[in-house]
Amino acid sequence: MHPFSSFVFSFRMRLLGLKRRKLTVSLSVVFVLILLIFGPSIYQESWLDPFSTLNLPNRVLHPHAITKLGMVDSADPLHPYYYTNSAKIQELMRNLQRATPLSSSDQVLASLENQKIQYFTLHRALSYYHAEEDYALQYYPDKSIVRFEQQAFRINESTIYDFTQITSGMTPGWWK
């Protein structure tokens, strides 16, 4: 086992080696600082993400940009609700990325006609990267199907669980 003084001497010699490469060390430190400052926002709004959510590329419907959910139940359309727990919303958006598109046959759409519907509003807040916008999403709890724009999607059990948790934790009214 080496004595402590040899470790100190070894460390001092390595520092002398770095002293000769001041430019490399200073550029490395500046690069790391820039990465720490701008890295999280670049990652959060990355357009290089290869996934899509509900058949829209992430540069259009970016999951991290959705900050609020609004809901109107077809059984009680006069009482809207909203939800702002961002962690649960992000989990729902990740699960919606795994939704499987259904064929646009008339049989699927006809089976949805007399079903209970929950109308959701996905709210994208204004940021440096995109404008404020709302997206409409229809959820059919009895059929485990969501409709987004003109397409229907089958959702998995974890998405159903997220919808159940979100609807039970909603606040009456609408966000301001």
Q: Report the mean per-residue pLDDT as an integer.
A: 82
Low-confidence stretches: none
Query: Could you spell the SSE succession in H and E letters?
Result: HHEEEEHEHEEEEHE
Computed Rg: 25 Å
Distance between the termini: 66 Å
The helix content, as a percent range, equals 25-40%
Category by helix and strand content: alpha+beta
- The fraction of residues assigned to DSSP E strands is 25-35%
Largest sheet: 8 strands, antiparallel
**Spatial sequence of strands, sheet with the most strands:** 5-9-8-7-6-3-4-10
Q: How many runs of DSSP E, i.e. beta strands?
A: 10
* Backbone shape: elongated
| Distinct helical segment count | 5
Tags for this model:
single chain, 176 residues, alpha+beta, two-stranded antiparallel sheet, 39% helix, 27% strand, elongated
Architecture overview:
This protein is an alpha+beta fold and 176 residues long. Helix content is 39%, strand content 27%. It has 5 helices and 10 strands; from the N terminus they run ααββββαβαββββαβ. The protein has helices at 4-19, 22-44, 86-96, 106-111, 157-168; strands at residues 52-53, 56-57, 66-73, 76-83, 100-101, 118-124, 133-140, 145-148, 151-154, 171-172. The chain has an 8-stranded antiparallel beta sheet, with helices on one face. The mean pLDDT is 82.
